Amino acid sequence: DTEVTQTPKHLVMGMTNKKSLKCEQHMGHRAMYWYKQKAKKPPELMFVYSYEKLSINESVPSRFSPECPNSSLLNLHLHALQPEDSALYLCASSPTPGTIAYNEQFFGPGTRLTVL
Amino acid sequence: GDSVTQMEGPVTLSEEAFLTINCTYTATGYPSLFWYVQYPGEGLQLLLKATKADDKGSNKGFEATYRKETTSFHLEKGSVQVSDSAVYFCALTLLNSNTGKLIFGQGTTLQVKP
Prior knowledge:
The complex is a heterodimer of chains A (116) and B (114).
Chain A: E1 4-7, E2 10-13, E3 18-25, E4 31-37, E5 44-50, E6 53-57, E7 64-70, E8 73-79, E9 87-94, E10 106-107, E11 111-115
Parallel strand pairs in A: 2-11
Antiparallel strand pairs in A: 1-3, 3-8, 4-5, 4-9, 5-6, 7-8, 9-10, 9-11
Chain B: E1 3-6, E2 11-14, E3 19-21, E4 23-26, E5 31-38, E6 44-50, E7 56-59, E8 62-65, E9 75-77, E10 86-94, E11 103-104, E12 108-113
Parallel strand pairs in B: 2-12
Antiparallel strand pairs in B: 1-4, 3-9, 5-6, 5-10, 7-8, 8-9, 10-11, 10-12
């Protein structure tokens, strides 16, 4: 299994809703990432998990809350979002930190989020 | 700081034309270089990579050579197809990075017309 899966594919939510995005990989990768991508722009890194521990938070607002319950699963909990948070949210994973293969990231198809 | 600069698009070509998308980088350490492709409505796919100087990455007819002397990693394809229409991102990550952080260029949109 060489893919990263993300659910749901599309999500529409109101500003008072609580929702979660899910990402899963079964490649044995020990680093996982959340990115936000606006239209016609490159992905922006949000969070990095290394060995299930949060290693980078790129000054993301607290209305985004990541969680890594195990080495295969990564969640992004959403609460009280704003319309400007509407974007494509991408998950990625990469092999063991500290190895040269670590530099290669595998991306999921993304969740298209619309905040009304 | 570390950065990637890509030629601005959109690039519009006829089918079977030759493609070059320029990419140059600035890096404080020793980078690995990547080209990712994003088809409409999809996530990013790794197209090719190179991890040291003079390495040539290749995949699906696309090629790019890691040129340390010119700090470049230009993407080329000899004969493009309509199905190559997508956004192409050049990216780097530092070999000694303990974060694996990818630094992306702004992306170049390629449109291939039949």
